[in-house]
Design goal:
This protein is an all-alpha fold and 102 residues long. 63% of the residues lie in helices and 0% in strands. The protein has one domain: Cytochrome Bc1 Complex, Chain D, domain 2 (Orthogonal Bundle), CATH 1.10.760.10. Helix 1 crosses helix 7. The longest helix has 18 residues. The protein is globular.
Length: 102
């Protein structure tokens, strides 16, 4: 395998977590049950979350920091559904929300 091909594969592998950050991941994890349109149980819809977290765009550490807070219950209290999402999935979802949840 050429060095160029190896670097291309390595770059593509690094993008996998970003590709998972989508509405499909949110759908798969049941997030739309509360954060859909209309939102349930007083939960904010994804559009509102995207607006709220837009200020973190461009901050490389923000998705991980916010994911840690969300899973620990320090953002919105202890919500079992938030705590059941894996760290990797939560970071991907936070990145998706920060980027506009489109």
């Amino acid at each position: 395998m050429s060095a160029r091909r190896f670097l291309l594969l390595l770059a593509l592998a690094a993008l996998v977590p970003f590709a998972q950050a989508s509405s499909q991941l949110a759908l798969d994890k049941g997030c739309y049950s509360c954060h859909g349109e209309p939102p349930r149980r007083g939960a904010p819809a994804f559009a509102e979350l995207a607006e709220r977290y837009a200020r973190y765009r461009g901050q490389a550490e923000a998705p991980q920091r916010l994911a840690d807070q969300l899973r620990a219950g320090s953002l919105f209290g202890h919500i079992a559904a938030h705590e059941r999402v894996s760290d990797e999935e939560c970071v991907a979802l936070m990145r998706w929300i920060i980027d506009g949840a489109r």
